[in-house]
Design brief:
Blueprint (H helix, E strand, L loop, with lengths): L14 E4 L5 E4 L3 H7 L8 H11 L2 H15 L2 E6 L2 E6 L4 H15 L11 E6 L4 E6 H6 L11 H30 L1
Parallel strand pairs: 4-5
Antiparallel strand pairs: 1-2, 1-3, 3-4, 5-6
Helix pairs in contact: 2-3
Length: 183
Amino acid sequence: MKNMRDLPEKGVYAGYWISPAGKIFGVEEDHFRFIWSHPLLFGLNKEIMQELYNKFYNEQDTIKQIIDDLLEYGWVKCLKKQKYWYVYLNILNRKTADRVWEWAYHSLNGDLANEAPYQLVKIYELYRHHTRKVTFADILTGDFVYNKTRLSAKIQKFIEQHLDYFLEEYLELEEFIHESHRY
């Protein structure tokens, strides 16, 4: 499993980019500004982005095209909007499912330790124009994949060995907190 070595410790981020290789990058403000500040990381340069702008003559369409192209190339975009996390990817296959699982696992054990495992996450697949609502707990247990998509054997084995215990402990703690607020 990857670690989040590309992130400063305990950062507060507006979102994340996950590379096709599985590296996770914290986005402090805006996903496109992060691309603009680090174009080589994404295999781009400012001239290519300017050419796209010249094609569309519209900043919003240019940004959408660049982000859609990155998603098609295998990047995953994670963004917190109000009360939900949104995960944008091209298609949910084994590789992207593993990346999303790694992000959720490392995030809940790091920067997002204060987030509830039962918080809603919306996963949007660009290719299928499909949104699926799950929770962090669904992601951690592998219950967010569907059809023929499966997590890798390595992650599946980790889930079987460790995560049931974590979720049971969290559920008991959440019930205890809920009960203590009644009195």
